[in-house]
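User: Fold this; tokens only.

Assistant: Input:
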Amino acid sequence: MRTFTAIVERCPSTGQYVGHVPALPGAHTHADTLDQLHHNLVEVVTLVLEDQDPQPETEFVGTHTVHV
């Protein structure tokens, strides 16, 4: 089993959740709920890995808040 980090954001205009896996180009999806987004992310990552065996291009480190 491989583990990947997904970045999740919420689109203010549609209200949908948008997720992408920075380490896997092409691994992105959206959904109305976080549960559905998780399901969609598992599906898209599985499809990307079936199509190819990419080596992660990045490693998730964390988030950083900038106050301006």
